[in-house]
Amino acid sequence: MAGESNIELVRAGFDALNAGDLDACMERASPDLIINLAELPEPLHGRGIWREGAAMFRRAFPDLHAEIEDIFASGDRVAVRLRMRGTHQGEYLGIPASGRSLSYVSHEFYRVEDGLIAEEWICSDMASLLRQIA
Questions:
Q1: Residue 131 to residues 9, 17, 24, 70, 80, Cα–Cα distance (Å)
Q2: How confident is the model at residue 1 (pLDDT cuts 50, 70, 90)?
Q3: Are 77 and 111 in contact (CB under 8 A)?
Q4: d(C-alpha 40, C-alpha 133), whole Å
Q5: How far, CA to CA in Å, does 70 sit from each of 10, 22, 37?
Q6: Which helix (H) or strand (E) segment is 133 a member of?
Q7: How far apart are CA 52 and CA 80, in angstroms?
């Protein structure tokens, strides 16, 4: 049941992210992780880049919580629909902390290889996020 074990891998990654445990997140990712963000023209590469982005996000939204609303797998792929909630308590993309609460949706896809997350495609509703904190 590769699909079920892949779902559990991704769920465990979000549990670690919600706990603020970036080391545990890194343990679930391939060293050569490929990061595809909808707003960027080219993929990013590596766990270090992922960690930098996640740390920056945690500084801006330290109480950020990802709630899995839907998750399913087929073969080596896992699809997730998330509701992200948090409070804007630090600078984010040049926007100073506003203290505002936010809630937005993210659609994410993961490819699992050798028991690790090898690639991710992230399509978050960044327009909604920015509208809520500006």
A1: 32, 24, 31, 25, 23
A2: low
A3: yes
A4: 21
A5: 12, 23, 20
A6: helix 126-133
A7: 22
Asked if 18 contacts 24 with a C-beta cutoff of 8 angstroms, the reply is no
Cβ-contact 108, 122 below 8 angstroms: yes
Domain range annotation of the chain: 2-133
Distance, CA of 34 to CA of 20 (rounded, Å): 21
**Per-residue pLDDT at 2:** 82
What's the pTM? Answer: 0.93
Structure tokens at 101: 């609460």
Q: pLDDT digit string (tens) for 8-41?
A: 999 999 999 999 999 999 999 999 999 999 999 9
The verdict on domain 2-133 having CATH code 3.30.360.10 is no
Q: What's the CA dihedral at 13, 25, 38, 60 to 10 degrees?
A: 110
